[in-house]
Amino acid sequence: MEKIQIVHTNDLHSHFENFPRVARFIEDSRKNSVADDFYLFDIGDAMDRAHPLTEATNGQINISWMNSLHYDAITIGNNEGLGNSHEELEHLYDKANFPVILGNLYDQKTEKLADFAQVSKIFTTKQQTTIGVIGLTAPFILTYPLLKWDIHLVQDILPKSLQAVKDCDVVILLSHLGVSMDRLIASKYPEIDVIIGSHTHHLFPKGEMDNGVLLAAAGKYGQNIGTINLELTNHRVIAKSAFTTKTASLKVLDGDQKWVQAQLDRGNDLLSQRKVANLPHTLSSDYHDKNAIIQEALSAMLEYTGAEAGVLSSGLFLDDLPKGIVTEKNLHDILPHAIHGMKTKMTGDNVWRLVMEMEKNRLYLRTHQQKGMGFRGKIFGELIYRGITVDNKRNVYINGQELRPNQEYTLALLDHYLFVPYFPSIEIAGDNEIMYPKFLRSVFGDYLSKKYPI
Predict the structure, then answer these.
(1) What is the model's pLDDT at position 36?
(2) Residue 253's closest CA among 67, 19, 13?
(3) Rounded distance, CA 401 to CA 395, Å?
(4) Which domain holds residue 191?
(5) All residues at 6 or more sequence positions from 243 whose CB lies less than 8 Å from its CB, including other chains
(6) Rounded to two decimals, what is the model's pTM?
(7) Does residue 283 fall inside a structural domain?
(8) What helix, strand, coil percent values describe the chain, rounded to 5?
(9) Given 265, 284, 302, which residue is the final one in a domain?
(10) CA torsion, points 198, 202, 205, 206, in degrees to nearest 10?
(11) Which one, out of 70, 283, 393, 415, has a CA that is 20 to 30 A from the CA of 174?
């Protein structure tokens, strides 16, 4: 009889408040494991630029933390893949002491697998059982090409990845694909022994068995940690099970909060050293204010996109920008979102329909608690137009001129508005150019640095 134990994390999203207890659980599990072999995997979205220290270090603090725990392998999520520029992602794992298992991200220029990645890794246990580990990340086909990556679809790559580990005794997929895709894969590929999932933040407290494939997942933010146990005879799996442990159930030590606060303080200190602009007056997060921050942001977006009109939502801006020196910390505090500018071209009749969608949803969105799609705030907020007016007969005007149905117009929007379900005309009728890699806070910072130089 041979026993293999796996501990796994996923979608940590730089929630440092849970890291001390997660780390101790991992160390204790490794130390106290009664299995013959112990492995540690992460399934992506370990980093999130919403945390100041991740932002300030371009994710290197996350890699350093993972190095300290000696992960055996990881795959990446969209926060690594799309939250970094091409160059930043290329070098994110330069100092990592673990391999990145990822079969479906290719460099557009070389047409080869990303340099930091490998399709598979084969581990050999003390009893000479071979474990083939493969990894895939969610194929965002609209956005990866904007960063000069070629993301391949699961159905094209998975059979090739499985071929690389076909002679292994145990096959494990590190999947940052989401629960629906994991279940689909399980239904089609029973030769996979375990799929460790992520991306959709799903939690399987006791695992899930689909078509003989064990699915495991540990939720989000380090709120749970996953454990998988395999039993083998003659190198063949005869039993497999999974469970999760709630981090909140683990003991808090005296130094934990001090460590968590130190990470926050260090990130804020680093960002505070990077000066951006010198404001002559406070910019208010109140969109009614004569010096409303959203109006300056609209000016920044129109300049950045070259559009003739634009829309932003007030819930994006989490605080005021105070008079005086503005730093990257200030910008990160008010705009922590993973959201990009977008230039949208559409004909006048479609602009009219889009504006009607916005007017229809305005009251609902004003207090709607928005989650996901890159948004890191609380409510969606008020829609604020620049260069767009609507009269009481539902006529729409662009910069004072009534819309012409067949004329093409250019709007400054956000990719967030494409991804949320409230404005379908953007996806249906828009020619949308998402302007990677800069986040909205960087676009705004560039504008302020020119308008209000230090």
Answers:
(1) 97
(2) 19
(3) 10
(4) 2-265
(5) 205, 206, 207, 226, 227
(6) 0.92
(7) yes
(8) 35, 30, 35
(9) 265
(10) -70
(11) 415
